[in-house]
Specification:
Blueprint: H1 11-36, H2 40-50, H3 57-65, H4 68-71, H5 74-97, E1 103-106, E2 117-125, E3 132-141, E4 144-152, E5 155-156, H6 157-185
Antiparallel strand pairs: 1-2, 2-3, 3-4, 4-5
Helix pairs in contact: 1-2, 2-5, 3-5, 3-6, 5-6
């Protein structure tokens, strides 16, 4: 465990370091993705190794699923997390492959030392285009700061999915939502245990 996470005066420093590590990982992944562009499987493995360890997919999934989460069995919860994680990897592998000549700037961070949650704001600058505002909602966990939601241009990733999930649950129950996510993510045919 990172000792800095438990030192209140250092929490802002560790949060910023975690966000910088995430940004550096994203920048490296984008650069590598340009070289790997034709190979989606390699980009996916790159995301698995460099980016996903900075995310709390269990919390993100729980928030996206909403009240339905409480009704899900432990096995269904694990399947929901795996499928949601796979869907996001698949979605963002394509976006990462298209990244070109981007730089990330962080907005100065203001967080009280005792806070367990914070938002790290950044701007992604691209040549010839308006900057994209990206905010990472992060939580201090036993294993360091983890991202549980990302807002791009003010639109929450979790809220975006949360608007569509209830209709699927009403129509096809929790199992229907899981199957839909597994189908969309391509994980229905091969189930691999992925820790969140």
């Amino acid at each position: 465990m990172d000792r800095g996470v438990n030192v209140p005066r250092a929490s802002a420093k560790w949060l910023l370091l975690a966000a910088c590590a995430l940004a550096a990982s994203l920048a490296l992944a984008a650069a590598w993705a340009q070289e790997l562009a034709p190979d989606a499987a390699k980009i996916s493995r790159l995301l698995q190794r460099k980016i996903l360890p900075h995310f709390d997919f269990r919390r993100a999934t729980r928030m996206a699923v909403g009240l339905t989460w409480r009704r899900a069995t432990p096995e269904q919860k694990e399947r929901l997390v795996r499928a949601f994680r796979s869907l996001l990897v698949r979605t963002y592998s394509g976006a990462l492959a298209g990244a070109r000549d981007e730089t990330v700037e962080f907005v100065p961070l203001r967080v009280r030392p005792a806070e367990s949650e914070a938002t790290v704001r950044s701007r992604v600058r691209r040549p010839g285009a308006a900057p994209i505002e990206i905010a990472y909602d992060m939580e201090r966990t036993a294993s360091g700061w983890k991202v549980f939601d990302v807002r791009v241009g003010g639109v929450s990733l979790v809220a975006n999915y949360r608007t569509s999930f209830p209709a699927e649950v009403r129509a096809n129950d929790i199992e229907g939502l899981i199957l839909r996510l597994e189908h969309k993510s391509g994980s229905a045919t091969k189930r691999v245990f992925v820790r969140s």
